[in-house]
Amino acid sequence: MLGIIWNTIIKAPIVTTLLWLTNLTGSAGIAIILLTVIIQVIFIPLRVPSIKSSLKMKKIKPELDKLKDTHKGDKMAQGQAQMDLYKKHGINPWGGILPLLLSLPILIALYQVIMTTLVSVEGLPTTFLWLDVTKADPFYILPLLVAGSQFLSMKQLTSTPQTTAVEQKLEKKDGSGVDMAQQMQTQMMYLMPAMTGFITLTLPAGVGLYWITSVLFAIIQQKFVQEKFYAEAEQTQQHGS
């Protein structure tokens, strides 16, 4: 039953669309890139709220720090106060999980399609630039590009155009302005790109193309959302003052 659902809802549309795009463009590599863009466009309604939630989380960080001091030693009260603060600002702390959960099955399905359909269809143009999309990159260039783009994406999402006055006061107060959550965030900013680059070393280049196209699309999308978010925040601040 699960196999039928998997093949019908996820795998079959990918096979059909990928083969059609390959015949249209004459390259399985270009087809994978176009398929990725189509998928990412479909995911826009899910990803934009996720990005906004991340930006709002950074904006209310000074308030979260205050809550930690107010409810020091009382984890339950601190957790409830945080949830109330999230609700007040319209933040869903788990908003980024759904796009990730939906992306993983597509990534797995694409890997299966590459290793079965693209390999078995005779005469299919699987070469793209220096790559064969059904085989790992022999020069390890693609994994490096994947890791680099992943790092840029994470750095972009964790950076803000300027530090607020409240944040500056907090930094002066504790001497560093870096708490445990920030340290973990910094570690993940380096660890995740390294992991994704390592994983794509042995995967078919088609998977790497999907990954890097997804990340580049996310970088552009994050840029637009961030600019709009900070512009609206600046206008609100000007009206408030």
From TrEMBL:
Q: What is its main location?
A: membrane
Which residue spans adopt a coiled-coil conformation according to this UniProt entry? Answer: none
Q: Which UniProt keywords apply?
A: Cell membrane, Chaperone, Membrane, Protein transport, Transmembrane, Transmembrane helix, Transport
GO CC annotation terms, alphabetical: plasma membrane
Q: Does the keyword rRNA-binding apply?
A: no
Which chain regions cross the lipid bilayer? 28-48, 97-121, 198-220
Q: Does the keyword Hydrolase apply?
A: no
**Superkingdom assignment:** Bacteria
The Membrane insertase YidC/Oxa/ALB C-terminal domain is annotated at 29-226
- GO BP terms, alphabetized: protein insertion into membrane; protein transport
According to its UniProt record, where is this protein located?
Cell membrane; Membrane
- Please provide, alphabetically and separated by semicolons, the GO molecular function terms listed in this UniProt record: membrane insertase activity
Q: How does it sit in the membrane?
A: Multi-pass membrane protein
What Pfam family is a match for this entry?
60KD_IMP
Supply the InterPro entries for this chain.
YidC/ALB3/OXA1/COX18, YidC/Oxa/ALB_C, YidC_ALB_C
UniProt lists the family membership as follows: Belongs to the OXA1/ALB3/YidC family.
Q: What NCBIfam families does this protein's entry cite? A: yidC_oxa1_cterm
Q: What is this protein called?
A: Membrane insertase YidC/Oxa/ALB C-terminal domain-containing protein
Name its species. candidate division WWE3 bacterium CG22_combo_CG10-13_8_21_14_all_39_12
**Lineage of the source organism?**
Bacteria, Katanobacteria
